[in-house]
Amino acid sequence: MVTELDKVDVVTVGVGWTGGIIAAEAAKAGLKVMGLERGSERGTDDYQNVHDEYKYAIRYELMQDMSKETITFRNTRDQKALPMREMGSFLLGDNLGGAGTHWNGQTWRFLPYDFEIRSMTEERYGAEKLKDDDGYRIQDWGITYDELEPYFDKFEKTAGISGEPNPLGGDRSDDYPTPPMIKTRSLKMFEDAANSLGYSPIMMPSANLSEAFENPDGQTIQACQYCAFCERFGCEYGAKSSPEVTVIPAARDTGNFEVRPHSNVVEVMKDEDDDSRVTGVRFIDTRSGEEFFQPADVVVLTSYLFNNYKLLRVSEIGEQYDPETEEGTLGRNYCYQIFGGAVGFFDEQFNTFMGAGALGMAFDDFNGDNYDHSDLDFLHGGNMAITQTGARPIATNTTREGTPSWGAQFKKESIENYTRTLRVQAQCATLPHRDNYLDLDEEYTDAYDVPLVQLTYNFTDQDRNVQEYTIDRAAEVVEEMGAGEVKKDAVVEDYDIVPYQSTHNTGGTVMGDDPETSVVNNYLQHWDRDNLFVVGAGNFAHNGGYNPTATVGALAYRCAEGVIEYAEDNRRLE
């Protein structure tokens, strides 16, 4: 039996960055908001006891339980997709705050080129550069950087981002709210090398704050202690901007927001009398097994992109993408990232075991269309960076070519090089291809008997070409930094679900200005259901050469405007 709860104005499915932003803005506007979170409550106090690397970095305490829900994966359609049984290529967050708890905090804005990539590429190079005949499906986002800029600014001020203007980025309406982090010796070496090569290095925009900051909502974020426990960890000091120290308390302070943990949403409920609306969501209490119906005037899917896609698909909202006919929009344009870099071996030692998740320097000379692609066999590129995030021993064993993977020589090389190696790499954009997409698996289900998401994905020639190019550029920087020996990355062939690469998955619920090629409009409102919004990195029409969180945050603020306007219009009609 399903228990029906009291109706609310807005229900969010997931309470991380996107759910927290929607909740805070809607609650401040006077709307009653319910946040359904399938994980448990948590906050800064939970991380103040011990730096437990085994618990968090190895056993993935903050991540999704793969025994209850996972995805299946294959490279091509003629392969059998198999379940991902443990965390590998990407780390899916769980509990209050989601992946916004364990992120590093590298907070870049996507470039103006990203949002109008098809138009700008065709204008500069001609339509043939888009490689439509090779299966690439590059499209504009239905919104421009200039339209999204105020929302970027709002997110950065909410999170207190520490940084400095990027000469190769989009125009800014204001400076970052806090100054950049400190420059360590390795960062200064990178800066000098990049300047010597004619590039434009800047300090990385960071959600690990350089100084204490009170944001516009009155929430205080502390100054970073450079303890190096950011990636895969929650911040013990409240110095890494996360939903739990920013938007979630801001929403709660209004008295209009409630979080209901241990609530796994399994279906978006449709209005039987009106095929343009939804009525709420059905969820299961993960502790008792009870089923509930949460009615709402507005439903916002704010979970990770795989789950957002899954809920639309199992609820039969929208048309599934078919790679044979290319009909349908739900599940298309799944993209990831590929990395091109090099390691330098130095005689001197560096304190690489210290740092912060977003302590780094970078330049964008090979990102987006900031360089001429006329004679190159790829588009886009990546942000080139060096970071000092805190190299963990054992997990970080950089050795020279030819070193055995075990034994006395391996141990000697590991100890010798642990603090004597520096890595420079570009995180490179990937572009959509007709054969890369999301679907539902016909064989495997989760703990609630709901089909798993099936990922069909492989790197393309575009990806391998941009990787090879940026590997060479990174090696030149490392050599200029004075490395005695440079070890280049190998160019990959096929994508694999292991090892860890980045939690920068995008696509599947793409935004746009045409329902024939997108799932939602540029307010992230579903084309088929007026009171349903879907927000996250799934809205990206392609991936960029950056970490996605700032762009996700900007889209969430844009979405919040749409939610509030729709809810208020709906109230007036009633």
Which features characterize this protein?
FAD/NAD(P)-binding domain; 6-stranded antiparallel beta sheet; alpha/beta; flavin adenine dinucleotide binding; 8-stranded mixed beta sheet; GMC family oxidoreductase; GMC_OxRtase_C; 12 helices; FAD; single chain; 23% helix; 574 residues
Task: State the CATH topology.
Answer: FAD/NAD(P)-binding domain
**The first-level CATH class name:** Alpha Beta
The overall pLDDT average reads: 96
Q: Report on the biggest sheet.
A: 8 strands, mixed
Distance between the termini: 30 Å
- Figure out the total of helices: 12
How large a portion of the residues is in β-strands, by DSSP E?
15-25%
Superfamily at the CATH H level?
Answer: FAD/NAD(P)-binding domain
- How many strand units? 20
CATH architecture: 3-Layer(bba) Sandwich
Based on secondary structure, the structural category is alpha/beta
GO molecular function, one term: oxidoreductase activity, acting on CH-OH group of donors
Family: Belongs to the GMC oxidoreductase family.
Protein name: GMC family oxidoreductase
Keywords: FAD, Flavoprotein, Oxidoreductase
Summarize the entry for a quick read:
This protein has 574 residues and is an alpha/beta fold.
Describe the structure.
By secondary structure, the chain is an alpha/beta fold. Strands 1, 2, 3, 9, 10, 11, 12 and 20 form an eight-stranded mixed beta sheet that branches. A six-stranded antiparallel beta sheet has the order 6-14-15-16-13-19. The model has no long low-confidence stretch (mean pLDDT 96). The protein is built from twelve helices and 20 strands. The radius of gyration is 23 Å and the shape is globular. The chain is 23% helix and 18% strand.
